[in-house]
Amino acid sequence: MQNIEELSDKLAKEQSKINQVELIADFILHELKGYTPDKAKSTSEIIERYNVLKTNHPSIPDIPRTTFTVYLSKTADSPNSKINCDGRKQGYYLDTLFEKIEEINKLEQEKENLSDIKEEDEIYSFKEKEIYPFLKEWLLSNDCNRVSDISSGRRQGVWGNPDLLGLKIETMFGSTEVEITTIEVKITNDGWRKWIFESVAHTVFANRVYFAFIHPETQINKIEPEIKDYAEIFNIGLLVIAVSGENYLKIKNREKFTLKEDNHRIVVLAPAPLNVTQIKYKKRFLQGLDITEPIHLFNYGEGIK
Question: 284 and 186, same structural domain?
Fold first, then answer.
């Protein structure tokens, strides 16, 4: 833990107000031992301690209360800050999960840089397919009549084969309409700027498209805002399979972990907008699944039993 002189020195070199607030709040949370959600400190507690620091140490910059409050909230939502807040009026704390994930990511990068690491050397790794059953249930609960795992298909070409498919079928006066929903699944959102375009490719034939990944439940607020911008620009939705920090670390560390009904929840980070697709591309996609007649729609995959 740094002392007040070290803090003052850092603040003197920092011109950004939001970065100053982060340095001060980090120092105070260390002082007050706000290391876990149950030890979180309120905005008032942090500002009260900040005022004492200012009074006793003139080198601490004077930041208006409103400015301090706004920047503290923004800092808690930043993916690059270990200061976290689990929600409105929940208080702020130093999230140790942040540093643990950073360390794992660093080790993973070092391994990637070693040419002698072989895939068969890995003892265990959590597989995307372990998420599929829960996302199929989610599709059914969101009005899809039929769902299927089509991840192993290859007939749709590069990036034309989603992991999961949901079909919402409507009939009226002898006419049949189908709304196609697809989900592309990744273990985490690492490298999302590349992988999200697999989902984007599906908007050619699908009416609703989702990009899904696992993330610590307490850090959903820290997911990069840019991923939502991409989702909005390219007309796709985002699903988060929220797990505890402990279980997320197991997945990252390639430790044994089983996804169950009671150890996760599915969060809609961004709802998928309705895409108006050209009939020829939707038809081509369905034909690639051997769906060529209305009756095939009702018999495809699985439905609610």
Answer: yes
